[in-house]
Amino acid sequence: LLSGNLAGARAIVMHKTDLGSAWKLEQAYYALDGTKLMNRTDKDNDLKEKRVFQVYDGSVSPGSHSLSILVKYKGTSVGIFPYFKGYSGDIKSSCDFRAEEGKIAQVKVSVYPEGGVAESIEQRPQVKCEVEYFENLRGDGAGTPDENEDAGNQE
After folding, report:
1. Pairing with 31, which of 1, 91, 99, 143 sits 20 to 30 Å away (CA)?
2. Which of 3, 6, 11 has its CA nearest to residue 67?
3. How many whole angstroms separate alpha carbon 77 and alpha carbon 50?
4. Which helix (H) or strand (E) holds 25?
């Protein structure tokens, strides 16, 4: 559950697409413990243009949490594979993490290709979650970690 306490725990959720130009992000839906954090649909290519973006930065209650993820991608026509434009896929996943009093839990969600040429194209996109913890040196939220080394290099 989300909480409004000042000195408590914080969570930062970052999304990163590592699929290359063959896939276009159409929709990103994130929920924390069943509460919607984000439901964005690509309008004017705003999601396609951002490889990395912040989903959430705020207070959470200390304890265990579950982050639900639903991302929708569509294939684009690239190079010698014009048929790829017809592919689309929904990727559902979840990540569990623990929030601690006085700390920031930074959850990095990456969508990346997995498998080789034997893997079907629809099965390749996968979700990986990495959680890092930082001391929240200031209770006002100003002690944020560097969001992502790639955040300044959004493509």
Report:
1. 143
2. 11
3. 19
4. strand 23-32
pLDDT in tens, 7-40: 589 999 999 998 877 788 899 999 999 999 999 9
Of the candidates 89, 104, 106, the residue with the CA atom closest to the CA atom of residue 139: 104
In this predicted structure, the answer to whether residue 43 has a pLDDT above a threshold of 70 is yes
Beta-bridge partners for 126:
112
Quick one: CA torsion of 121, 123, 124, 128, rounded to 10 degrees?
A: 160
Nearest 5°: the CA angle 5, 110, 137 is 30
Backbone angles phi, psi at 86, to 5 degrees: -80, -15
For residues 77 and 5, the model is more confident at 77
What values do phi and psi take at 150, rounded to 5?
-95, -5
Single-letter amino acid, residue 31: A
From CA 153, how far away is CA 155, in angstroms rounded?
Answer: 6
- Side chain identity at residue 148, one-letter code: N
- pTM of this structure: 0.77
CA distance 144 to 131: 15
CA distance 139 to 154: 29
